Amino acid sequence: MGETSGCRSGRVSWVALGLTFILLLAVVVYQLLHQRIQFFLQKTNLVEGFVLLILAAFVYIAVAFARSLTTQNQIETALRQSEELQRMALNAAHMGVWDWNIQTGEEHWSQEIECIFGLPPDPTGTKDKDFFQYVHPDDRFHLVESQRRAVEEGAVYAPEYRIIHPDGSLHWVTSRGQVLCNEVGQPVRLSGITMDVTARKQTEAALREREERFRSLLSNISGAVYRCAHDTEWTMEFISEPIQEITGYAASDFINNHTLTFAEIVALEDGDRIRQEIDLALAEKRPYILEYRIGHADGSIRWVYEKGQGIFDENDRLIWLDGVIFDITDRKRTEERLRLLESVVVNTSDAVVITEVCGTALSDLKIVYVNQAFSDITGYRRDEVLGRSPALLKGANTHRHELNRVYAALNCQSSLKTEFIAYRKDGSEFWLEMEMVPILNEQGNCTHWISVQRDMSDRKQTEETLRKNKEAAEEANRAKSQFLANMSHELRTPLNAIIGYSEMLQEDAEDLGYADLVPDLEKIRGAGKHLLSLINDILDISKIEAGKMELYPETFDIAQVIFEVESTIQPLMEKNHNTLQIYCPEAIGFMHTDLTKLRQSLFNLLSNAAKFTENGV
C-alpha cells in the first residue's frame, strides 16, 4: 500500500500490457477454435484439443473477470491470476505467446518460445534473440511473405514452417496471429501464439507412409480388396481398383451401391450358398473362403475366389466384412480340362503309366501313377507297382534291340514308339505296344515320363495268321502260274498246228478248185485263233497278278484295228440278233501302244456286250 506513484504507474502499464496479451490471446484462440478445432482433434490428439479448450476457458474467465474489476488492486490481483492461468495453459498446450510492434519493431515473447526453439531459458528477461536465424532457410521466404500478407492485406496469419534447434535437430512449428489496428485502421501490432507440431508432422508422415504402403500393396495385389456391410446388397464401403478387371465394372460403381450392388452380379445359383457360408463363419468367429460365379459386364460368367472375415467392435457387434476377391476363371478352366483328361485316362482301355526320373537308366525310373487298364493288362495291382521300376515287365524273351531303343530315348529325352514282348505278373508273355513321351520342366530337364501301353497279343496273332495265309496264297499262286505255263505249252502246240494246217488246206482248196470247202476251213482257222487268244488272255491275267506283265508298244493304224475287231466280233453279234454299228473315219490316224493288248481289250468289251445282250436289249 506504500508503493510510489511511479511504481504504481509502471505496474499499471504492465497490467495494461497483460490485459492486452489476454485480449489478443482470446482473439487468437477464438480464431483457432473457430477455424481449426476439428483439425487438431483429428490430426493431433484428443488431449491436445482438450488443452486448447481449457486455454480458451481460462482466457474467457480472465477477460470477463478483468472487465468486472473497479479498483487498481483488483486489477493487479487479476493480472497476477491471469498471468498464472496463462502460464499454466501455455505450458499444458506447449505454446508460446509473442507480440510484434509493427511500428517500432519491438518484440515480446514468453519463455515457452525459447523452449520451442530449443534455447535455454533467459533469466535476465532480455529480448534481443534473433529467432529468425533458426528458421529453416527454405521456409524463410514463406514466413516473411505470410507476415507481409497479414499486415498489408489483412490475410490470416497461420504459417507452418521448420526450425533448426541449436543441436541441429529439425522441428516443425505452426503460428497463429492476429493483426491489431489503431483507431484510423493502421496495423500497429501482430500478436499470436506458436506451437511445436513436430509430433503431429511425424504422425502425418507416418500416416502418409502407411497409406502409400497400403496403396502400393493394393496396386500389386491381383485381387480386389474390399470392405462391405453385412446386408442383402453387400454394400461396399471400399473396394480397390482391380475389381474392374475382375468384373468389368469400375470400383466407384459399387461404392455405396452407386450404380449397382455387388449382390446383383453374383450368380443366382450361388447367392444363398454364399450367404449361408458367411453367416456360419461369422457365428464361429472364423474367416470364410468362397468360390462362386459372377456375371461380367461383357456378359460372360467368371469364377472368383473370396477370402474374408468379420470385423467386430469391443461389444462384439459386427461392423464390417473385410476381404479380398481373386479371378480364378482360368484356374477353373484348367481344373475342368484336368478332370476331363483324368476321366479319359481312367476310362481308357489303354494302360497309362507315369514315371518319375531319378536317374538315366530304366531301373532309375519310379512309377508314380498307373490307371486301372494297366492292372487289367499286366495283372499287377496299383499298390504293387508304385515306387517300382517299369523294368518289372521285361523278361528273357524281351527284344534286346527294342530295349536299347528305350535306353537311347531316355538318354536323349525324346519320344519313342516301340513293340516288344513283355511279361505279366503270372509270368505269361504278351506283346506290348508302348508310346513314351518326356515331361520337361522350365529348365528343359526331364522330370517325368508318360507312357501309353496296349496289349498287342491279339493283333500279333491276327498278323501271324494273315502272314501264314499270305504265304499259302503265294504258294498256290505259284502253283497256278506253273500250271498255266505248262498248259500254255501243251495247248499252244496243237492249236498252232491246227491253225497252220487249216491255212494250208484253205490255200490248197482254193488252188484245187474246192471253193466250197474254203468257208469251213476259214471257220476252223478262226476258231483256232480265238482259242489261242483265250489262252493268251489267261496267261496275261496270270502275269498281271504276278506283276510280270510286259508291253510291246508299236505304231499302227487305228481304223484298221477297229475294222479287224469288227469282222471278228460280228458273228457273235448276229448270234443274239444284235447289230454292231461302227462310226470311225478312215483317216482317224495312228496310235503308239501295245497292239495285242489293245485288240484284246476291244474284243473283250464287245464280246461281253454280245453275250449279255439280246435283240439290242
Strand content: 15-25%
Helix/strand class: alpha+beta
Gross CATH architecture of the largest domain: 2-Layer Sandwich
Number of strand elements:
17
The CATH superfamily of the largest domain bears the name PAS domain
And the CATH topology of the largest domain?
Beta-Lactamase
Number of domains: 5
Residues in helix, %: 40-55%
Assign an overall shape: elongated
CATH class term of the largest domain: Alpha Beta
Unreliably modeled segments: 1-17, 27-51
- The number of helical elements comes to 18
State the end-to-end CA separation: 166 Å
Biggest sheet, spatial arrangement of strands: 2-1-5-4-3
Note the main sheet: 5 strands, antiparallel
Roughly what is the average pLDDT, rounded to an integer?
81
Radius of gyration: 59 Å
Please describe what this structure looks like.
The chain has helices at residues 5-43, 46-67, 72-93, 111-116, 140-152, 198-220, 243-247, 251-254, 262-265, 268-283, 329-347, 372-378, 382-385, 400-412, 457-512, 518-545, 558-575, 595-611; strands spanning 95-101, 107-109, 160-164, 170-181, 187-196, 224-228, 236-239, 288-295, 301-312, 318-327, 351-357, 365-370, 416-423, 429-440, 446-455, 553-557, 590-594. The chain folds into five domains: 8-192, Beta-Lactamase (2-Layer Sandwich); 221-333, PAS domain (Beta-Lactamase), CATH 3.30.450; 348-455, Beta-Lactamase (2-Layer Sandwich); 457-550, Orthogonal Bundle (Helix Hairpins); 551-617, 2-Layer Sandwich (Heat Shock Protein 90). Strand 1 and strand 2 form a beta hairpin. The protein is elongated. The model is unreliable at 1-17 and 27-51 (pLDDT under 50). The longest helix is centred in the C-terminal third of the chain and has 56 residues, at 457-512. Helices cover 51% and strands 21% of the residues. It has a five-stranded antiparallel β-sheet, sandwiched between helices. Helix 17 (558-575) packs parallel to helix 18. With 617 residues, the protein is of the alpha+beta class. It is built from 18 helices and 17 strands.
